[in-house]
Amino acid sequence: MGNNADIRFRHSFYYWGFKLEVFVMWIKVITSSVWVICGLMSILIGMGCDYRNNKLLTEQSTTFEKELAYKQRTQNELEMKLRRAQEDIIKLERQLECREDNEAQN
Q1: How far, in Å, are 26, 36, 62, 77 from residue 80 at the CA level?
Q2: Is the pTM of this model over 0.90?
Q3: Binning pLDDT at 50, 70 and 90, where does residue 26 land?
Q4: Distance, CA of 7 to CA of 62 (rounded, Å)
């Protein structure tokens, strides 16, 4: 009888030992999976932040380019007005010289 009890004990020990090994293996697999998921999430969050920063920089550069183009257009318009005003001044000076010459001859 002592022999049968010993066999049953060994049998149950190996049975539960096997189940314990499977349980430990699954715990290791689950913890490894959690670490992998956490690592991937941190990478994705980092990439998301970079994407948002790049998007913000793109928007800022687009806004800057629009403002620069507007200022250049405004500057070109002012230069054209200045050029026309200078041409008008030259014409008026010539007319004034002609009048002065005509009055001096009369």
Answers
A1: 79, 65, 27, 5
A2: no
A3: confident
A4: 81
| Spatial separation of the C-alpha atoms in residues 16 and 66, rounded to whole Å | 73
Q: How far apart are CA 37 and CA 4, in angstroms?
A: 49
* Number of residues that make up the chain: 106
Q: What is the pLDDT of residues 80-95, one digit of tens each?
A: 999 999 999 999 999 9
**In Å, what is the CA distance from 54 to each residue of 41, 42, 101?**
20, 18, 69
Using CA atoms, how far apart are residues 3 and 31, in angstroms rounded to an integer? 41
**Cα torsion for 50, 51, 54, 58, to the nearest 10°?**
-170
- Give the integer Cα–Cα distance in Å for 9 and 15: 10
Point out the least confidently predicted range of 48-52, 58-62, 79-83.
Answer: 48-52
The answer for residues whose C-beta is within 8 angstroms of residue 11's C-beta and 6 or more apart is none
